[in-house]
Amino acid sequence: MRYWLYILTLCWTLSPLCVLAKSEHGITLTLSQTECYPGDLVELHAEMTRADYAEFELKLPKLAALHFVAQQQSPITYSKGIYWQNAVWIFQPLRAGSIEWIGIRAQVKQGEIENEYELPPLQLEVLSYANTEDAPTPEALPLDSEFKAAGQPSLWLYLLLTAGGLGILYYALRQQSKAAISECTPKASLTELQLSLKADTVPVALIEQLLAEPASTFSAELRMAMEAAVYKPQADPQALRTAIEKEAQS
């Protein structure tokens, strides 16, 4: 009986050492999710807790089915006799299927001493999206849409036609107004100018109207005389009369 008590006491005493030997590195790996879809963000968390100071670095095998996005590692903290360090890797799965991380290794450094440990594998299930079948036959329009398309033109078409008609009407009325104003306005003539000059007055408004006529074909000499009568103060009416007489004889 005493022999068996001794064996049990020895096993109970050595059991913490066995647990410590199993997790000598103190590192645990977890995934933010074990099931996802292609393109989802998946976080791999690595956490190390131990009673003595150490720092770790993971060596992750490259997988063609995963796209690396970012990595973030926190500094070592100490609280209540425990050293703690955490690191996060973010990946995106590229295809559906089962992805298994095998061969993850941790390099633990304590001063000049470095040890490397192989960590347990991780499993990630990437689900596929539901298949959608694209039929070549177009979908039928609703009944109210078919009725509107067949019997009722769109509102914007009414507005467009109305705006076009108003524009054409405005242009036609504007042209008629210009023609009416042109017909009602009496055209000035050199004869009328001669009659005004006989009274020894210079009709400035009449001369300006003659100069502004687009169909006038005055000679350069007459035009200069008319401009001088308009723009020069105290112009001599006789000079303008002489230029008009020469214009009439030519």
Largest sheet: 5 strands, antiparallel
Mean pLDDT: 77
> Which secondary-structure class do the elements indicate?
alpha+beta
Proportion in β-strands: 25-35%
Topology, number of strands: 11
Question: Radius of gyration in whole Å, from Cα?
Answer: 52 Å
Low-confidence stretches: 1-22
Bulk shape: elongated
Gap between N and C termini, in Å?
Answer: 157 Å
- From N to C, what is the helix and strand string? HEEEEEEEEEEEHHHHHH
Summed up, the helix count is 7
- Fraction of residues in helix: 40-55%
Q: What does it look like?
A:
It comes from Thalassobacterium maritimum. The chain crosses the membrane at residues 155-173. Keywords: Membrane, Transmembrane, Transmembrane helix. This is Protein BatD. The protein is of the alpha+beta class and 250 residues long. It is 41% helix and 26% strand. It contains 7 helices and 11 strands. It has helices spanning 2-22, 143-151, 155-184, 190-198, 204-212, 220-231, 237-249; strands spanning 27-31, 35-36, 42-50, 55-59, 66-73, 77-79, 82-93, 97-101, 105-110, 113-118, 122-126. Strands 1, 3, 5, 6 and 7 form a 5-stranded antiparallel β-sheet that branches. A 3-stranded mixed β-sheet has the order 2-11-8, with no helix packed on it. β6 (77-79) and β7 (82-93) form a beta hairpin. The longest helix has 30 residues, at 155-184. The relative contact order is 0.09. The model is unreliable at 1-22 (pLDDT under 50).
Chart the SSEs and their pairings:
Blueprint: H1 2-22, E1 27-31, E2 35-36, E3 42-50, E4 55-59, E5 66-73, E6 77-79, E7 82-93, E8 97-101, E9 105-110, E10 113-118, E11 122-126, H2 143-151, H3 155-184, H4 190-198, H5 204-212, H6 220-231, H7 237-249
Parallel strand pairs: 2-11
Antiparallel strand pairs: 1-3, 3-7, 4-9, 5-7, 6-7, 8-11, 9-10
Protein name: Protein BatD
Organism: Thalassobacterium maritimum
Keywords: Membrane, Transmembrane, Transmembrane helix
